[in-house]
Write a structure and sequence with these properties.
By secondary structure, this protein is mainly alpha-helical. The chain has one domain. The chain is globular, with a radius of gyration of 19 Å. The model has no long low-confidence stretch (mean pLDDT 82).
């Protein structure tokens, strides 16, 4: 076994932990959005995350300086913009349409991997992506397929950019350490958040409380809930995104992107535990398809490694 050997089963374990952590923390974004804005949230979360990362870097022997600054900066910008487009679309589109658009990323991963980098794509992987995406549609419900418009292209654009960033993790930044890419990701979001805050501070207007104004709310004096849950977001994201980045470094981006479907059942689980919201039987059927897609990918990769 060599250091570059693909380890899909290990990546699946990392992504499972990532999904459970992020599924928990993301459930509290609705609490943060009551009185604060998206841009202040990203800036504050980055500040907190970088402080935590700086404190643990020395004792844990972490390397934050990139080997290839241009590659890390490009990857960080792509992933950061993908998240901004995703959250921005939530301001005027139903969450079902936005989520369905973002989870087209595995399809774009396969297409980019094949036509830009010449990677072979077997029928099993194509079928697994289709199975996982069908599961996403079942989880989101019929409303995910309605209301298509020009605005609905934005979440798909976020999915395409997210796919590009995932491929860049392995193709451009294979020699970088996970903590280096993690720091770059947060710094990109922090810069974007700072720019958004400055623009809204100069030209924005006051908006009333409520999550529907998350995108257009400028800098405010935050309450205790904002500080608490933004810190939880910062530390949870450091752990979760760090594990996800490592997963993309040790397996093919197409396989890892399918395994990322686990974030949906993880989020639904925490929604049920925290808020008591239940899913319809059709949604549970979709989750079964999502899990099946991940298992097929992992077992197929294991068989190819023997």
């Amino acid at each position: 076994m060599t250091a570059t050997k693909d380890r899909t089963l290990a990546a699946a374990g990392l992504i499972f932990v990532y999904a459970m952590v992020i599924g928990f923390t993301d459930n509290y974004v609705q609490v943060i959005a009551q009185n604060a804005g998206l841009w202040q949230f990203h800036f504050t979360r980055t500040a907190m995350a970088m402080v935590v990362l700086g404190l643990v870097a020395l004792p844990l022997g972490l390397r934050l300086r990139p080997r290839n600054l241009r590659a890390v900066a490009a990857r960080s910008a792509i992933h950061g913009l993908a998240m901004v487009i995703y959250f921005g679309a939530l301001a005027f589109l139903p969450v079902a349409i936005v989520a369905a658009g973002l989870f087209t990323a595995p399809i774009f991963v396969l297409l980019i991997s094949r036509f830009a980098y010449g990677h072979a794509i077997g029928p099993v992987r194509i079928a697994a992506v289709g199975l996982g995406f069908l599961g996403v549609i079942l989880v989101l419900g019929p409303q995910a397929l309605t209301g298509a418009s020009l605005a609905a292209v934005l979440p798909v654009a976020a999915g395409a950019m997210y796919a590009m960033g995932n491929i860049a993790t392995r193709e451009w930044c294979a020699g970088e350490r996970a903590e280096t890419l993690l720091a770059g990701f947060f710094l990109a979001l922090g810069v974007i958040g700072a720019v958004g805050m400055a623009v809204l501070a100069l030209w924005g207007q006051a908006v009333p409380p409520g999550p529907e104004h998350f995108l257009t709310r400028g800098p405010v004096w935050p309450d205790g809930a904002f500080w608490l849950w933004t810190f939880v977001q910062a530390t949870g994201s450091l752990l979760g995104v760090g594990l996800m980045i490592r997963a993309y470094q040790i397996t093919d981006a197409g396989r890892a992107s399918v395994l990322e479907y686990m974030i949906l059942p993880a989020s639904a689980f925490w929604t049920w535990v925290l808020w008591g919201e239940h899913l319809e039987p059709l949604a549970w059927g979709g989750m079964a398809l999502i899990v099946a897609a991940g298992v097929i990918i992992a077992l197929r990769a294991r068989a190819q490694e023997r």
